[in-house]
Amino acid sequence: MQNQMPKGTFDILPYGAEEEWQSSDLWQFVEMTLRKIACDYGYREIRTPMYEMTGLFDRGIGETSDIVTKEMFTFQDKGGRSITLRPEGTAAVMRSFVEHNLANLGAVHKFFYTGPMFRYERPQSGRYRQHHQFGIEAIGNGTPEQDAEVIDLLMEFYHRLGLKHLKVHLNTVGDLESRTRFRNALLDYLRPYLAELSAESKIRFEKNPLRILDSKDPKDKEIVKGAPSILHSLTAAAKSHFDAVCRCLEALKIPYLVDDKIVRGLDYYNKTVFEVMAGDLGAQNTIGAGGRYDGLIAMLGGPDLPSVGWATGLERVMQVMKAQKVSVPLPCRPKVYFIPMGDEAMEPCLELATKCRHHGIGADIELSGRKMQAAIQNALRAEIPFCAIIGSNELSQRKLQLKNLQTREQREIPFDALLKELSHV
Ligand code: ATP
Ligand code: MG
Question: What is the pLDDT of residue 96?
Fold first, then answer.
């Protein structure tokens, strides 16, 4: 075939998609749910460009992260500037927050975003070069209650989608002093294994050893199993924040598990970090992840404000929905399908269909003059519940046959009574 989609991408289709989770009905349901929940928790939408100046991600994500070292879609524009398709949302949201001085417009700010992200990864199930995220950022509040609120929002989102058996894996990466202590303990532990670490982790050993805990290399994973726990390196302040987050999650009845191996891939995290895993996904089992990044806004040139947030990958979420056979509400479909029997019925059909549509009642019409059975098949395929059939008899009496395609029951309805009839069936 001549024109194929690029590697690592997929189409979202109303029907005929390669995989069930690529159905646009499902995407619409998930997107509706995310907009509603963001509103219920007081988060407002922020939309940033699909690309940014490359420097933002270099600085904002951290030079030893997977994203920056190997996954960015970077190119030069015609003016010679280095541009990168956004690999994640937080750096861009914070850039925008600082650039527009939004800190002057309030003490706390709650944003959500959704849209495609781009990472040059090896394509496989749950890992694409263009994927979609729903993310939130809560800026201006450094309390453990704020951490618990964002975690609850994430879990409630999954709950509203009908997902089950999910658990928050919770950890803390402490404050700077905790991390310095931990770094030393970790280096002492890893030093004897240095020769066995992957090439990437050897570099991390020098530049950012915490990142080794996040390695996907099987050998590295084995080695870090015996690593010391950051929980033993916490300062009193970092420990008390973490304990308070745990208490809050218990009060909100959110099931969680302390998992001291979670450090998160990005450089900007401090204190609380978390991931939500799903058992139904195989290797790519993290469906959402986030944490606190109190220094990020200041690092990007803004005021020193605390912030916490997360992002969840919509592809993986929908894959779990399908694996768990979640049923979703019926998608939006026209209510009635007009079938003109003969040319002279065409115009009245079109008029009635138009009238329905203008009154917000979904209608479609058989315009290509197919025979009744073929037209009914068309309506069934489109999952439209009623047919309105107009033949010459009906036309002369200004009536139509309204047929319920599920029950097969058929009734005669005057043209004038159709709107009223359809608004309560
Ligand atoms: P992973 O460890 O699986 O590579 P990550 O740490 O790189 O994930 P984040 O940067 O935290 O992921 O992104 C948030 C969420 O976005 C992830 O939890 C995941 O659900 C989703 N995600 C990340 N990368 C991809 C991708 N290439 N394809 C599909 N979903 C992705
Ligand atoms: Mg990754």
Answer: 98
The terminus-to-terminus CA distance of the chain in angstroms comes to 46
The whole-number pLDDT of residue 61 equals 85
133 inside domain = yes
**Ligand 1 atom nearest 284 alpha carbon:** 3
**Residue 87 belongs to a domain with what CATH number?**
3.30.930.10
Does residue 266 surpass a pLDDT of 70? no
Q: Which of 109, 108, 120, 97 is nearest to 48 (CA)?
A: 97
319: CB partners within 8 A, 6+ apart: 21, 125, 126, 280, 281
- Give the residue from 295, 323, 351 where a domain finishes: 323
The predicted structure's pLDDT at residue 265: 59
State the CATH number of the domain containing residue 377. Answer: 3.40.50.800
* 3-state SS class at 174: coil
Residue ranges around ligand 1 (CB below 6 Å):
88, 119, 121, 126-128, 131, 133, 265, 284, 286-289, 311-313, 315-316
Pocket test for ligand 1, best of 61, 93, 131 (most atoms within 8 A of CB): 131
Atom of ligand 1 nearest to the CA of 214: 2
pLDDT tens digits for range 196-229: 999 989 998 998 898 899 888 999 999 999 999 9
Q: Is 180 inside any structural domain?
A: no
Both tokens of residue 235? 């300062």
d(CA 422, CA 425): 5
pTM: 0.93
Range of the domain at 30: 20-175+235-323
Where a domain ends, among 269, 298, 323? 323
